[in-house]
Amino acid sequence: MKGILALVNIKSELRKEGIEVISQLNTLKVNSIATNIAQKLVDTFPEQNINYHELFMKLSRLNMYVAKIPNGVAAKYYYKNSSIYFSESTNLEDIGSVAIHECIHYLQAEINQKNKLVKLGLCDFTDIKLSGMALNEAAVQLMAMKCTHAKFDTVKYFDIELPSNSPDYYALECNLVRQMAYITGEYVLYNSTFYGNDDFKNKFITLTSEEDFEIIKNNINTIMYLEDKLHAILEKVQSSETVTPEIAKLMKKSSKIKENIRRGFLLTQNRIFTSFFDNLFDSLYSPKSMENFRNALYNYRNFIGVTDDYTFFNDYYITKMAGLENKYNNVPNTPLALVPVKSENLFQILVRKIKTLLGLNYKNNYNYNDINMK
């Protein structure tokens, strides 16, 4: 009786999600998909020591269905019945990143004896706020895109230009988490994402602070929440044939949300790299460590998102290079200058080089007013 009631409840919940089952995949097709995804994960992340046979066996036990799924979603994992639903438009012969994404969620899921989800990779479901949800979604998406060998390109969202290999899903969140991984290294990010441990969190905290980690995690979650809210508003606007007072109000609200997303992204980005490089700067005592610091900060420019009026990274780089020169000059027995000295003074050289090398616009300082993020 309980089994029947559970089945009825699951069907009811699926209907609420707009999922309508068409057919269940046979064992042969399930095994084929399990083989495909298991091999991709093992080949893409050899350093994670993933056991192919264990992974295949687990994926082969996953119930798989073809279903009607709204909003153009290619696949959806549902933990309550350990099932994944593929859209009827999904090519099951060529499994893409979205299907891999959902299968990783299945592999992440920690479910207790009461069939309650308690942890999903980087997200702790015992935390009422679920502030790690966006962090986990972005990390899983980065893993999925890596499995498909997706190339990075420059995209633009909310007037922010940024490098992304996931332009269609969580582009902003993925960029920010990738910046965090630049600091910790990718290995520990993917290890914690796949196995659900706290190594990534602990390493990031060690390199920055616990306060910084919590603020960054919460900010990324807020960005994802705002994007979902914006999507819902735009759907209402697009479904309306005329501009009513209510629609006009929604359009104004959507503009405000877009601005908050843009400001929140830049504010979060700034906290990521300043929290790390400020902390690292204080520990520099040798010429080699100073040169490594300079290279690491300079290369960070390849990861950030920028707007027409964003100058924070430029300004920060200039300040840190000036401070680095002072540190270097105070180290005894250093015959070589950290920055070549020409007829210009150090500050002039740095400004000129940053303008040309970083390729970022150098305009007025950015304004972070009216954003509920730190």
Walk me through what this model shows:
It is a single chain. The chain has helices at residues 2-16, 27-44, 52-60, 97-108, 133-147, 171-184, 186-195, 199-207, 210-239, 245-281, 287-299, 312-329, 346-357; strands at residues 20-24, 63-68, 75-78, 83-87, 109-111, 117-120, 123-124, 153-157, 160-164. A four-stranded mixed sheet has the order 1-2-4-3. It has a three-stranded antiparallel sheet with strand order 5-6-7. A hairpin with a 2-residue loop joins strand 8 and strand 9 (160-164). By secondary structure, it is α+β, with helices and mostly antiparallel strands. The N and C termini lie far apart (51 Å). Helix 5 packs across helix 7 (186-195). The longest helix has 37 residues, at 245-281. It is built from 13 helices and nine strands.
Properties at a glance:
single chain, 374 residues, alpha+beta, four-stranded mixed sheet, three-stranded antiparallel sheet, 13 helices, 57% helix, 10% strand, disordered N terminus
The mean pLDDT is 87
Number of helices: 13
Strand order of the largest sheet: 1-2-4-3
| N-to-C series of helices and strands | HEHHEEEHEEEHEEHHHHHHHH
Describe how the helices and strands are arranged.
Layout lengths: L1 H15 L3 E5 L2 H18 L7 H9 L2 E6 L6 E4 L4 E5 L9 H12 E3 L5 E4 L2 E2 L8 H15 L5 E5 L2 E5 L6 H14 L1 H10 L3 H9 L2 H30 L5 H37 L5 H13 L12 H18 L16 H12 L17
Parallel strand pairs: 2-4
Antiparallel strand pairs: 1-2, 3-4, 5-6, 6-7, 8-9
Helix pairs in contact: 2-3, 4-5, 5-6, 5-7, 6-7, 6-10, 7-8, 8-9, 9-10, 11-12, 12-13
Outline:
With 374 residues, the protein is an alpha+beta fold. It has 13 helices and 9 strands.
